[in-house]
Design brief:
Layout lengths: L18 H28 L6 H22 L3 H5 L1 H23 L1 E13 L2 E8 L2 E2 L4 E4 L10 E6 L8 E2 L5 H31 L9
Antiparallel strand pairs: 1-2, 1-5, 2-3, 2-4, 5-6
Length: 213
């Protein structure tokens, strides 16, 4: 009987990783998401009273960095684009939590009536009058369809330290900002886990980085 030829050893695909290595990189991307969200939240607290452009700008860079990390983990682009949706919740929650929490903790509530309104583009400014007379600080709304009119009565919250802008009391919701932040982080976590699984499979098959799947 002829001896059977010894089968050639399997040659691993270029770029293939062990399952343990893929799990490690996936967990690293998940932790990066939590780190980025935490850093931007802390930055918003530190810069409280300064223009929101600071934490917004840094937050956008961190969200972009997370999308790049997902792209590298996945070896494809569609999940990095998908990470933009939860990134919006992370950005809003991390930026707005600090001022909302400050107003909720130390803010003073006042019942007021709108006595005048001005608009420049999409920036609406409402002059308010309370029991002690006209307030020095207006109510500002940036956007379309503000929903306020002269003569409307509402309750506002003012910061006695003058750091945070006056806000409609009905819209002061730090718990909602925490919820937005956690929702965004949950989306990032699912995205990273899916990217890790798909990326591991792509590397095992020798598939290279592309724009689609």
């Amino acid at each position: 009987m002829r001896p059977q030829p010894t089968p050639a050893p399997a040659v691993p695909m270029a770029g293939a990783r062990s399952a343990g290595t893929s799990v490690g990189w996936t967990l690293l991307v998940v932790l990066l998401g939590f780190l980025f969200a935490g850093l931007n939240t802390v930055l918003a607290y530190v810069t409280l009273g300064l223009p929101n452009a600071i934490p917004i700008g840094v937050g956008l860079v961190l969200c972009l960095a997370f999308a790049v990390a997902v792209r590298l983990l996945h070896r494809a682009a569609w999940l990095s684009w998908l990470s933009i949706l939860p990134a919006l919740f992370v950005l809003v929650g991390s930026v707005q939590l600090a001022p909302e929490a400050a107003l909720d903790r130390r803010g003073v509530r006042q019942d007021v009536v709108i006595v005048d309104a001005k608009a420049v583009g999409k920036r609406h400014s409402y002059t308010l009058s309370g029991p002690q007379g006209q307030l020095t600080e207006p109510l500002i709304y940036a956007g379309s369809n503000p929903g306020y009119q002269v003569g409307d009565r509402l309750t506002v919250v003012t910061d006695p330290e003058g750091v945070v802008e006056l806000e409609d009391a009905a819209k002061v919701d730090p718990a909602g900002m925490v919820g937005a932040l956690l929702f965004g982080l949950s989306g990032w976590t699912v995205t990273a886990l899916l990217a890790g699984w798909r990326g591991h499979a792509r590397r095992q098959r020798g598939r290279h980085d592309d724009l689609v799947i």
